[in-house]
Amino acid sequence: KGGFEHFMLKEIYEQPKAMRDTMTGRLNAESKLITFPELNWTPDEMSDINKIFIVACGTAYHAGIVGKYYLEQLARVPVEVDIASEFRYRNPVLEPESMAVIISQSGETSDTLAALREAKRLGSRTLAVTNVVGSSIAREADQVVYTYAGPEIAVASTKAYTTQLLAMLMLAVYVGRLRGSLAEEKAEALATGLVSIPEQIHKMLEDVDQIKVFAREYGSSEDAFFLGRSLDYAVALEGALKLKEISYIHAEAYAAGELKHGTLALIVSGVPVIVLATQMDVYDKTVSNLQEVKAREAVVIAIGFEGDTSLGKYADHVIYIPKTDKYLAPLLAVLPL
Ligand code: BG6
Predict the structure, then answer these.
(1) Most informative mutation of 65, 106, 130 for ligand 1 (most atoms within 8 A of CB)
(2) Which candidate, 258, 206, 238, places its Cα nearest to that of 303?
(3) Residue 164 in contact with ligand 1 by CB distance below 6 A
(4) Nearest to 127 by CA among 94, 106, 101, 164
(5) For the whole model, what pTM was predicted?
(6) What is the pLDDT of residue 1?
(7) Which of 17, 225, 256, 316 is the most buried (most CB within 10 A)?
């Protein structure tokens, strides 16, 4: 366990190295180019893709939801994300111009492997994103993008999830450039931002005392809610799953805008609500949702950028993460979660 109390803690602290290893050979820090030599795709091949289906289970599924935002916003490809156990039985409309992206840390999850086989049976191209070389999913997919997180022993995924996000972001930039739908300067800005991520993660992991305070204060809660919009919502899903898996607290993630359609009824005095507020294009709306739950006497822990001076006015606590591009924010916002 490398001197750590348990594997999960060891794997959380391996994330800077896992990120660097997953960028190696794909992100060139000098040229700011992101490529996948192992895929060697051409502009024509990529322009022919009319839809991407991302299929996975559990944490990998949540990484797929973040991947949807990346591919739709940066590569302008329509993306549908499916839970593997649903995909395999719903007779999905896949065509030769579709691409199925199968995400699986172990590369052995049976529903995900079955979904891969179903996508191939329907004639779709298949790409595996997996952390285990030579796994069944890696062997049976047409092509493979490996994450290099190293063995993940803990049942609850941490470094595999963050390297899956990294792989999906780099893929979106790669595909976006090939399809001509992503400007070179945006691609370079993202590459520049990615170079700093491992060190930013390292620094964040050095100071976790605030988290220990929250654990003591809210660890006995029965319920917890995670709210966010856009990419913050996608990350909130993983935050809720982590809390469920590790603490056995009933935790749910909601799109912050959906709160008023029912869930607000469950927000009673003292319920901890974690609000992610890194997506500045929907920031004001997220803050108004934060005020809604405060009005019902929830205890709000907000996740925001360093330098954000307004969150502290409304939230009971704020966990600050380094300011970064909105597409890179999930890589940092998930750490405290
Ligand atoms: C679950 C694990 O059993 O399977 C989760 O507890 C994981 O952490 C899920 O996300 C999917 O596993 P994999 O290996 O296909 O990513």
Answers:
(1) 106
(2) 238
(3) no
(4) 101
(5) 0.98
(6) 92
(7) 256
